[in-house]
């Protein structure tokens, strides 16, 4: 085989070199840079692929929400379209932030166009993930306060844009109030955030969601969860929204 | 018979082993970019933009290292790059552990926060050290069989 004779030749060359070296003679050698070039090209290609994915995702501009929202207990009903979905999110949940980043614009567009109704369930399953505990409930409460303040659509998005890391203290009530003020909250938004008066309704809604077998996968409830007609749908199917819109 | 042969076989196993590690971990990360983002973010080291960049590039860099090891091009260089990346992973897991975060390393897909009792930092670091040993072997002794290096790497020029 060609490889065998090649190896043979290489060994002979190396033996000759060793003899030269033993005799104190240094043969000048050119380094073969081919492997290094191949490695560099492949890694540059890989970075280019990753970069292209990154740029493709970054190019989508934010859609400005124009839909209206109303609250009933701890459930916010947004839009008036014929297709109806239930969205369960926890404001400190990183996967929910990804969900918002990925589908937020499409959902907002469908709501703006009157094709979709979303029942947002801002729930609190991760209260223990902030230190001190309770950010999930405070954030959900602020989101419910944002409904009568007339700023829910943009406030909801803002809470995910500014999502604190798990394990952190979360956003302070002052920060939650400031975001509302920036977005033009009407009425006593500050008092509503400070009062945390929706906490009981949020706890009840959280309990209801986590115990509903139709919202579980393998006996566990997690966020984000999207349900149609009360049944959890598979978000791994990335065309779920198109299908829901029919 | 060449005395170096058994050592070549050990090196080859290390090369294929490490290639498999990168190919599998890269693939699992590449197919679920959102999960990869959550995993990188959970280390709580980088700002949001940095997380975005690392999460986007990491899977493809891992796949590139895997392919290069599989075909055996620039084995020593690729092993050194692998070792450098593995060291970054070990440091990342160690800092999460030291700071009392409870996360899954997301080494082979998955990742993100877990319940405080469900962390497996020791296993994760031991596993990475095992991979580091494979990379270390190839840095010290990069000669293996069934490698493209035999054809393009050791040919004398001029």
TrEMBL record, chain A:
Residues 82-244 form the Thioredoxin-like fold domain. SUPFAM superfamilies: Thioredoxin-like. The keyword Transmembrane applies. Keywords: Membrane, Transmembrane, Transmembrane helix. InterPro entries: Thioredoxin-like_fold, Thioredoxin-like_sf. The chain crosses the membrane at residues 36-56. It holds the Pfam family Thioredoxin_4. This is Thioredoxin domain-containing protein. It comes from Pseudonocardia adelaidensis.
Automatic annotation (TrEMBL), chain B:
The chain crosses the membrane at residues 7-28, 48-71, 78-98. It is found in: Membrane. Coiled coil: none annotated. Keywords: Membrane, Transmembrane, Transmembrane helix. Residues 9-140 form the Methylamine utilisation protein MauE domain. It is a multi-pass membrane protein. The keyword Transmembrane applies. This is DoxX family membrane protein.
């Amino acid at each position: 085989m060609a490889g065998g004779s090649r190896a043979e030749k290489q060994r002979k060359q190396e033996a000759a070199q060793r003899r030269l070296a033993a005799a104190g003679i240094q043969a000048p050698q050119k380094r073969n840079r081919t492997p290094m070039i191949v490695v560099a090209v492949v890694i540059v290609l890989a970075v280019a692929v990753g970069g292209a994915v990154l740029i493709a995702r970054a190019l989508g501009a934010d859609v400005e929400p124009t839909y209206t929202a109303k609250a009933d207990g701890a459930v916010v009903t947004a839009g008036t379209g014929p297709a109806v979905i239930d969205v369960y999110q926890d404001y400190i949940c990183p996967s929910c932030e990804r969900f918002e980043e990925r589908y937020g614009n499409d959902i907002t567009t469908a709501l703006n166009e009157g094709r979709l109704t979303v029942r947002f369930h801002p729930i609190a399953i991760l209260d223990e993930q902030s230190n001190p505990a309770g950010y999930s409930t405070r954030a959900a409460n602020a989101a419910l306060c944002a409904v009568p303040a007339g700023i829910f659509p943009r406030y909801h998005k803002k809470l995910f844009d500014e999502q604190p890391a798990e394990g952190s203290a979360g956003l302070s009530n002052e920060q939650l109030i400031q975001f509302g003020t920036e977005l033009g909250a009407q009425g006593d938004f500050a008092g509503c955030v400070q009062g945390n008066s929706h906490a009981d309704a949020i706890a009840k809604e959280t309990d209801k969601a986590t115990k509903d077998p139709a919202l579980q996968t393998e006996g566990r409830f997690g966020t984000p969860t999207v349900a149609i007609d009360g049944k959890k749908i598979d978000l791994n199917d990335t065309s779920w929204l198109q299908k829901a819109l029919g | 018979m060449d005395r170096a042969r058994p050592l070549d076989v050990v090196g080859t196993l290390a090369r294929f082993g490490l290639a498999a590690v990168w190919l599998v971990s890269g693939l699992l990360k590449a197919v679920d970019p959102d999960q990869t983002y959550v995993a990188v973010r959970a280390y709580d080291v980088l700002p949001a933009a940095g997380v975005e960049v690392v999460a986007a590039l990491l899977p493809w860099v891992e796949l590139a290292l895997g392919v290069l090891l599989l075909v055996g091009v620039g084995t020593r260089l690729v092993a050194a790059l692998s070792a450098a990346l593995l060291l970054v992973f070990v440091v990342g897991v160690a800092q999460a552990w030291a700071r009392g975060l409870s996360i899954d390393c997301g080494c082979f897909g998955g990742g993100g926060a877990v319940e405080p009792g469900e962390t497996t930092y020791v296993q994760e670091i031991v596993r990475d050290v095992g991979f580091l040993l494979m990379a270390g072997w190839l840095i010290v002794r990069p000669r293996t069989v069934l490698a493209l290096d035999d054809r393009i790497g050791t040919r004398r020029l001029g």
